Amino acid sequence: xxxxxxxxxxxxxKGLPFRDSHEVVARAVRLAEEQQRELSELPLDILQSFSGLxxxxxxxxxxxxxxxxxxxxxxxxxxxxxxxxxxxxRQYLQAV
Length: 96
Fold this sequence. Notes:
It comes from Snodgrassella alvi SCGC AB-598-J21. The protein is mainly alpha-helical.
């Protein structure tokens, strides 16, 4: 669940100060733990009760696939970035 917490915080930072988004995530995590659920298993209306900025696309960052895709930067886990790193290292190893 820690990975999901991190991504939910990042996602909420789109429109909330970090401190506020951290509080929203803490409340959501607390509820998920009390109900013995993952964050992605909480219904949308429950998540929205923590912040009006939460919309249906929140589930994209709460899924394992969404988490991977969201890290689309150099060294990130998005498939395009992984392919770029593999190509870069292949080129390097051929030159050595």
